[in-house]
Amino acid sequence: MTETALDPILSKTRFFLAPRIGALLIFSLAVAASVFLSLTSSTPDYARATYSIWPALILGGWAIWLWVWGHPEFKTPLWKFTWLLGFLGYAIHFYFAMQTVFAWNIASVFAAQGAVVTIANLLLLVVWFLSVVMAYLGFRFPYLHRFAMLLFIAAAVASTLLFAQETLSYLAGIAIVASWLSALLLRRV
Amino acid sequence: MIRFLVNLLVLVISLGVLAATAGWVYLERQWAAWEPPTGADAEIAYEAFTFGPFGLEAMPLKYAAVVGQVSGPAFTTGLEDGRTPWQTFGFLDNPRAGENGQPLCEANALQKLPYGFTVTNSIPETALQTPLKFAALTCATCHSGAFRAEDGTLSGIVSGMGNQELDVIAFSDAVRNAVTDPTLTADKILEAYDAQCGEIDPAPDFLTAQIEKLMLGQWLSGIRGSIGGDFAKYGMPYHSAKMKSASHIPAGPGRTRPFRSVVRVAVNLPGVENYAYSKVPVVFEQRTDLRPRSQYDGSIKSPVTRSYIAAYTSGSSLVALGKPQVNHAIRHAARYTEELGISIPVASFRDIFPDRAPNLQEVQRGFEVYQQHCTECHGYRDLESGDWVAEGEYLHKYESLDPAGNRLGVDDKRVTFRYAKKLPLPLWTALPGPPAVADEQAARLAQAQETAESPAFAYFWQQMGEAFARNRRIFRNGHPLYFPECAPDDPECTPESLLAEAPFCSDAPDAAERCAITAEVAMFNNPIPRAFMRAPYLHNGSIPTMRQLINLDPRPVRFCRGENVYDPDAMGYVAPGLPAGGSCDNPRMPFLYETTLPGNSAAGHDFPWPNEELDDARRQDLEALMAYLKTL
């Protein structure tokens, strides 16, 4: 399956930079920024755990945009790739958070974040992983993908808007939600 | 074709950025790798006390090696008199330095740095670990001492004894002054270092050298901004001979202003009017059954908490204190002080001054005098077993310094300074506890805000609450050094009982009684093992000898401090009284101690008798008492 085979718009648009390469560039820069910018913080470990959520939000948010915009024919190579990169970003965030903030003590995660948030986060990790694997293996699991993406949306909205600790986080949350709404408005079907 | 090449280039760049990022994270793991030491408990504890970092990196090691060259005018006092700058600040020579004449370099740093320094690769405050090595302070920097003989030489180092020559605040000003020099650059430091150590150190690989240089520049930029930004709160650092002048830095050798630091660090308020001086104390036999409360004022229970607060208020950040190796060092160093002098041997008076040892008959007579007049407050050391017996009517009780009923009569500035009663809650909440405890900490800060005595203090508590909320997010599972904690052998201790005892300390009328720190306006009666190593006496070091403390000799009103000779007969430092108007002209004893100044009073503790009530019989009793005190 080629990138343009299922996508009438992309098939008509010849981007100078291939979208998947652009996604990879954004992902790599976002991951690098989260790692190296944390070095300028007075609390580098915590900053890294915090900043590392942004690659997941950006790439995962992009995949959600493609889902909303292209539904029901959303499973393009670009969606799969952004969804994969978003998951990798989330896995990196999970690693940094578990290592530096919680010292791999799952009980302390429950104690600090509460059962609902912790279970939701762990569930997202598992479901997102399965969704990515199934998408790349070509299996049809529409409910799995839908559940993973809805869980992602809920987690993104909750973390950036409902539990925002900083103005930047709040503004970014608004931007992400606004972009998804724009996808609704621009839906191609 | 161009499109293909651009896409290929972006692909390569993207993968390169990812690889570089992953490589950096991998290298960070290598730099931060640390395994807890294994071996005998006593050895681990000694290593933690002597070489364990507690988050106070003084300066990059390469800078420390050449600081006299590149920052000479800022780092020296002009009173060196043939000594190195380090010796002038009172640091002890490292007995492992040897006589090979090599300069201090990275390859020999643990041998050539002054005693009590260690080497870490942790950047101050952020605790980032990189290839850049730092010279860092340990507990032994301050809490190891030696006896100076009449010929100026020093005895062997005694671990656990306070270094009464160490001018740590002057050293701090020298560092602040040196690093804010706008002409000081990473290149300047590295050029001087390479010229000095190029043939001694193995050359670092290219990547490591570049990272080192980058980090050195970053450190310099960061600390310059940090120190410069603190001028408004701390004032400008003093320089040259002013660093040794009592009229500029009034703490002087062997003393600190601990609560000025606490006020600045824990509640972010100025400490200019704080005269709560404290000598660098000995740390022997700190086991909690003998010494249930640490500090002269009995403000802290746990030795670990005492050590943590010492590190925290010296400038160690919460992030650094949370690092496993720092956590390990503080806990094991505290354990070392509990056993030092009990299961870990310490040299006795007879060991160090064998030709001045008292005769046994005199000691026995002195023991009787001690039992009559001293045991009730301090307990005693049993002559046969050698164990300290913690029995006494007033032992482990507070001696009030409130004007009414104050029989002790010593300087009260240590417990009456401004903001003293505001400290317990901020100190307790500086380290977020586990989630359930953190809820309670937040609630008490909120309650303090609600019950504040004025709008300004309501704002103050609000700020404390916000700072706590930030720290709580960082240490979600509680800070590794959160206190208090139950002793392993205390079955009655529970998290709930600890919480019930935790500082309440709002401004509510009935809350102050529950403040555990300084709220008593009192000193705490504790045992006094190794009394001969405790000179100068009283908490503020205002009485040079034991003979003066027990009023056998008059107490000097003005005297000079620095490299004072130790007089074993008088059990203390030779510091002749100066007449009014006299000055301390000896560059090795430049600090003028005036007991008439705030915080410096030598009054009080007139036990067994005030000087004017002495007769010949009592003098003989006191001479005998001196003999017994030498055996403690």
Task: Describe the model.
The complex is a heterodimer of chains A (189) and B (632). With 189 residues, chain A is mostly helical. Chain A has one domain (40-185). Chain A is 77% helix and 0% strand. Chain A has helices spanning 8-12, 19-37, 44-51, 53-70, 77-101, 106-113, 115-137, 142-162, 167-185. In chain A, helix 2 (19-37) packs antiparallel against helix 3, helix 2 packs parallel to helix 5 and helix 4 (53-70) packs antiparallel against helix 5. The longest helix of chain A has 25 residues, at 77-101. Chain A is globular, with a radius of gyration of 17 Å. The two termini of chain A are 21 Å apart. Chain B starts with a helix and ends with a helix. Residues 505-516 of chain B have low confidence and may be disordered. Chain B has helices at residues 2-32, 41-51, 61-70, 72-75, 85-88, 109-112, 139-142, 168-179, 186-197, 206-229, 231-234, 258-267, 303-314, 318-321, 324-339, 349-352, 360-373, 375-378, 413-416, 424-430, 435-450, 455-474, 495-501, 546-549, 616-629, and strands spanning 57-60, 117-122, 129-137, 144-145, 158-159, 255-256, 278-279, 380-381, 388-389, 398-400, 522-524, 558-561, 566-567, 572-573, 591-594. Helix content of chain B is 41%, strand content 8%. The A-B interface holds A 16-18, 21-22, 24-25, 27-29, 31-32, 35-36, 39, 41-46, 101-103, 105, 108-109, 111-113, 165 and B 3, 6-7, 10-11, 13-15, 17-18, 20-21, 24-25, 125-128, 317, 319, 434-436, 473-474, 476-477.
Instruction: Tell me the structural class of chain A.
Output: mainly alpha
Q: N-to-C terminal Cα separation of chain B, in Å?
A: 89 Å
SS field, number of helical segments of chain A: 9
Query: Per the principal axes of the C-alpha atoms, what is the gross shape of chain B?
Result: globular
Strand content of chain A: under 5%
| Helix proportion range of chain A | over 70%
The tally of strands of chain B reads 15
Count of DSSP strands of chain A: 0
- Residue share in β-strands of chain B: 5-15%
Mean pLDDT of chain A: 88
Tally of structural domains of chain A: 1
Which protein chains make the most extensive interface, counting residues with beta carbons within 8 Å of the other chain's beta carbons?
Answer: A-B, 31 and 27 residues
> Main sheet of chain A?
none
Overall shape of chain A: it is: globular
Radius of gyration of chain A: 17 Å
